[in-house]
Each structure stands twice: as C-alpha cells, then as structure tokens.
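re: that chain from earlier
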Amino acid sequence: MGKQDDDGRMGIAAALVRSAFLVNAVYAESGREHGLTPQQGQLLCVLMAQPYGMSELGAMLGLAKSSLTGLVDRTERNGLVRREPDPRDTRAVRVSLTARGSRLAEEFYAETCRRIEKLPDGLSPAERDTLVRLLGRVVLDNEVPVVFQAPDDGAAAAREQ
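^ sequence. v structure.
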C-alpha cells in the first residue's frame, strides 16, 4: 500500500492525510457520545465564537448552500441553534447557539480537545512545541478559517467583545 520506512517515517502527504483521518475519528467518537454528527459538532464549535450568517458558515465549513441549510435545519430541530434576523441585512439570517446548544458545544469542545491533545502523548514537550509551531504555520499560510479555536482563543475573543 503506502510506503513507510521501518522507523515510522512517511511522506508529508500521507502524514497530513492520515493525521486528518485521526482527528476526524476523534471528532466522530466525541460527537457520538454527545448525540451529534461530526458536522453538527463542527457547526457548534464554530458558533461558540459568535453567530454567523449562512454564507459565512458555508465558507468556513466548506459546505454548499443546500448542505448547510440541511445541517442548520437538523441542528435547529434538535434545539441547539436558532436563526435570527441579521441586523445589517433584512434579507439574511444569522445562526446562533441556543442556551442548550451553548452548553452542549462547551462539553463537546472540551471533550474533543482532551482527546486530541492526547494524540501526541508519545512526543517530548519540545517535539510537541515544534509540532504546534509547524502545524500552526501550515494552517496560517493556507488561511484556514477558525473552525476550532485553541482553548485560550475563546477567552481572548470574549475579552475583545
């Protein structure tokens, strides 16, 4: 199948893709335990920062309009999000967390962080710091939207509002 050296080395593409699968598996497992699909968990995590318009959410989550509408509809039926009029555009709506959705988002987020942070347990503190720095650069260089905040980013965002 894929080429991997005896010492565990693999190419950058394989390493990044397999890392994505690993994180997605954690997301799915955490979501199942909280009664969420992975997509609903992603939506709740994005909305923890603030309400967003549908077009903003579509761009952040990489979803087509119809897929996003279905996701928001299902999550709204579960009482986790609500649509509100956009004060800047009467034709648009913003999606925000309900009180129940906010509590569930915090629980899901904390559990998902706990599980993901355990993934590199075999690394030394210096290796972990290097991993964080390098992955952070890849994310920033590729302008990845903030779909999952670092635990202290939420506190910083709250202080700014």
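The chain has a mean pLDDT of 88.
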